[in-house]
Structure formats: C-alpha cells, structure tokens
Amino acid sequence: MGDYILAIDQGTTSSRAIIFDKKGSIISSGQKEHEQILPRAGWVEHDAVEIWHNVQEVIGLALSRADLTRHHIEAVGITNQRETTVVWDRTTGQPVHNAIVWQDTRTQSIVDRIAGDEGVDRFKDIVGLPLATYFAGTKIAWILENVDGVKERAEAGELMYGTTDSWVLWNLTGGSDGGVHVTDVTNASRTLFMDLETLEWRDDILSEFGVPRSMMPEIRSSSEIYGYAEDSSLLRETPISGILGDQQAATFGQAAFHKGESKNTYGTGNFLIFNTGEEIVRSQNGLLTTPCYKLGDQPTQYALEGSIAVTGSLIQWLRDQLGIISSAPEVEELAKQVDDNGGVYFVPAFSGLFAPYWRPDARGALVGLTRFSNRNHIARAALEAVAFQTRDVLDAVNADAGVELSELRVDGGMVANDTLMQFQADVIGVPVVRPVIAETTALGAAYAAGLAVGFWADLDEVADNWQEDTRWEPAMEDSERDRQLRNWHKAVTKSMDWVDDDVK
Ligand code: ADP
C-alpha cells in the first residue's frame, strides 16, 4: 500500500498538487498559476488546455520534490473551482471555447429570459439555487447559443460539458481514448440541472436551457473509484477516487462532517458552508442548498451555503487597480495605521451582491468619505467589508437553521490576516478558529479519495487529524458592534439599484 494520497486542487487562480500522509500533513506540493483572461467588463475566462497542462506539471513537481513515484501514491483526489464551465469535443479533446469562469456575469440576459414571469426562484425547490449568472447551466447555454456550430455539434452528441473536475478526470483517465466522463454530486449541484433529492439531471430543466443530456457527465458520489490514471501518465494505474467542489472539500478538510458543523473559507470570494445532515433545508434567507458530500452509497449529507463573490479579490483590486498596496499582506499594515475606519464603508458589489442579497443590479460603493479619509481608511474598510459580509451570511444561516453558531472554523488565503480575523470575531460575537493545516481544500479531496480505498478507515479517524492552531475571541462592545452593523447595512443599500437597462 502506498503511504500517501495526492490531491489535485484545480483552483480559480492556480492549480496545485499536494501530497498528504496519513496524519493529513503535507509532504510536498507543486503550484502553477494560469492566465485570467478578461475580454471585457464582467467577462472572465480560463484556457482549459493551459489548466490541463499545468495540472500535469504540478503533479510532476509534487512527486519529484519528495522523490516519490506513483508507487507511493495510494489514490488521487480532485477538488476544483466550481461552476467554471468547459465544453469540449469528445473525439478531439479540444475545448470549443475558453472556460467561462464562475465570476463571469455575461449570462444575465439568459437568466432574465429563463426567469421570465416566474422569477429567479423558479427552480429553487428542485435544485436549491436561484437562477443567477454564477451557475454553470447559464454558461453552458451561452456557449451553445453564441459559438458558431456548437449547438448542432452538441445535438449530434459530439460535445461534453464539465466543470474542471470532470475535465481533469477525463484527461487523466485517457481523454478521447477511454476517459471517464463523470462528476460528483457537489459539482453537479452547481449547474441548476440536478434534482437535490434524486441526484439526477432534470430533463425538463435541461430542455428549458436547450442543453442536450448527452453532454452531461454521469453524477457519482464524492468518494468512490471513478477510474485509473492512463498509461502515459506519471500516476499510471493509480485510482482516482475522490471529487469534491472546492468549498465542500474545505468543509470536509475541516472535518465538519456532522449536522450543525460549519466552515468559512476566505479566498477570492468567501464561502460559508453549514452542514444540515441528511436534511435538505430550503433557505428562506438567500442561502443556497447543496450537497455537502456523499460517500459511496451512503446517504447524502446536505448543507446551506452562503457565497460572497468579492473578498480576497477586493484586496487584489486594491493592489492591481487602485495601486495602494503592492502585495496582499500589505493591506494589514495600512489598516493598522488607523484606529478605525474613520466612517468609511466599502461595499464590493463588483459583480452585484451574492448571498444573502442576490442583487445583480448592485455595484461597488465606497461611502462615508470625507476630506479626512485616506488610503489607510480605505484599506481598513476593505478588510472590514469581508467581515461584515460574513456576518450577513451568518445571520441568514442562523435564521434558516434555527441554531446559533458557537464558533467559526476558518481557512483560505486571507486567514493569515490577524487584523481581519480579530475584526471578524468582533462583528460576529463568537470565536474564530483556524486549524493547523490551513490547506483544507486539498486535504478534503485527499480524505474523500483515501476513504474510498481504505487508506483511512472512517470519518472518526480523519476527524482525529483536525487540530486547532489559533483562536480569536470577540472583544468588541455590543453597542459598538450594533453601530457598525447599522452603518454597514446603510452602505449596502447605497450599492443597490445602480445598474440600469442601458448601462454600458
Ligand atoms: P483562491 O483559492 O480563491 O485562489 P486563496 O485561498 O489562495 O484563494 O487566497 C488568496 C486570496 O487571499 C487573494 O485574493 C489575496 O488577495 C488574499 N490574501 C492573501 N493574503 C492576504 C492577507 N495577508 N491579507 C488579506 N488578503 C490576503
């Protein structure tokens, strides 16, 4: 038996391969960024071929850095940026268009058309999601409607759709020469096409979107052997046995296996997932309902999710567009120069507001500015916006689930920021806790893969690996918290009703 599990983390900004041992410790890793293609305002694309090449390269890096070969690897897990849509030719393996990324908002007119008089919640009871540009189904429809000849090729059964888990898996298992075309329940649930109860594609919704069923991957559990790496691969004959969308993977990596457990990931965007066990809780408060994970033929575990589009990417914006910092960690140095936000609030509704508001008509708003405001206040307001948005999502979770959270487990790139984490504890009024292994996304995929092949015996063995690293206790007075939240909510209203029909 191999001593390690290799996880492929195909993320929004980069692809990573990380090798874990039984304790969940990182043995080695490789990482490569890919190009963010921004053809016009609101459009975000990736080159799926570049991504596949990078995945192969980082697998090689991770193996060679630890002097390991496929013989040391017991199984491979995949986690991925969700919703990002690839459509490719099943014979040539060539994508018909760049991948359309989850942040891309070009599909608003498709959303409006399908919502019609019934509104964006038309399919919500069935699929757990409102109609929104965020979800993959709208992106598939856009490619079918806008790329020459693609609709006919799709109808002739020549094309395949997948998020990057399916794309990587299909290529890894042989591509046009026998590659397996599957996805797991967590990824399938982000299309708008999967029935939450039956875990199958809905033919009626597919046909509303004009998407032939033959394009769709088979929906499988998150933890089972899907196939084996093909002969020419560095991982030849190694089973690929775990797939989880990135946020569900992070939940798994945080060992939030049971009802009432949760995690919040601070990356490009923020994603809070709250495990509701075997119960499908339909949100009344702007959250999504989604599978949390499914192990083989065991019952599906469900979750409520609060997705926030812009958090870490706001810090990137301060760096790349505004130029007031030259690296992400510098935002903390600026923020610490001032005692408070000086009355400045920043609502980063760059692509509308996601949970719990779901307002595509909102745009970014920087409010409360005076002659006194400076870049330190703006940096501070940007960090605080991340925490305020999380507070809004937590309020929605508390209302839907009817339980108050007792602590918040956190992970992702921004949790290195101490000022942010303290402020987060202050505005939610419960402790914020970071685990020793912060690479929870890749770790979750490794756990799913390892459980399928008996590398870990059960969830209890996995949960024993979780260890606390840092804890931030709330220290803000209630009256001050209330005042800040009141101002924040006032600022949120200023961002709404901005986009008119004739917006350019
Ligand atoms: P993803 O997996 O979505 O690509 P990561 O979890 O790697 O994201 O987190 C990267 C994000 O975190 C970037 O958007 C970056 O701006 C932000 N970030 C990284 N370090 C810091 C920091 N010290 N303070 C604030 N933001 C940070």
Written overview of the protein:
The N and C termini lie far apart (59 Å). The strands form 6 sheets. Strands 15-16-14-13-19-20-21 form a 7-stranded mixed sheet. 33% of the residues lie in helices and 21% in strands. The chain is globular. The chain contains 16 helices and 21 strands. With 504 residues, it is an alpha/beta fold. The structure holds adenosine-5'-diphosphate. Adenosine-5'-diphosphate (ADP) binds next to helix 10 and helix 11.
Descriptors:
504 residues; alpha/beta; 7-stranded mixed β-sheet; 6-stranded mixed β-sheet; 33% helix; 21% strand; binds adenosine-5'-diphosphate
Q: Concise description?
A:
Helix content is 33%, strand content 21%. The protein has 16 helices and 21 strands. Helix 12 packs across helix 13 (418-428).
What binds here, in terms of ligands, is: adenosine-5'-diphosphate
Strand content: 15-25%
Measured as a percent range, the helix fraction is 25-40%
N-to-C CA distance: 59 Å
Number of helices: 16
Low-confidence stretches: none
Helical/strand content category? alpha/beta
State the strand order across the main sheet. Answer: 15-16-14-13-19-20-21
Q: What is the arithmetic mean of pLDDT?
A: 94
How many distinct beta strands? 21
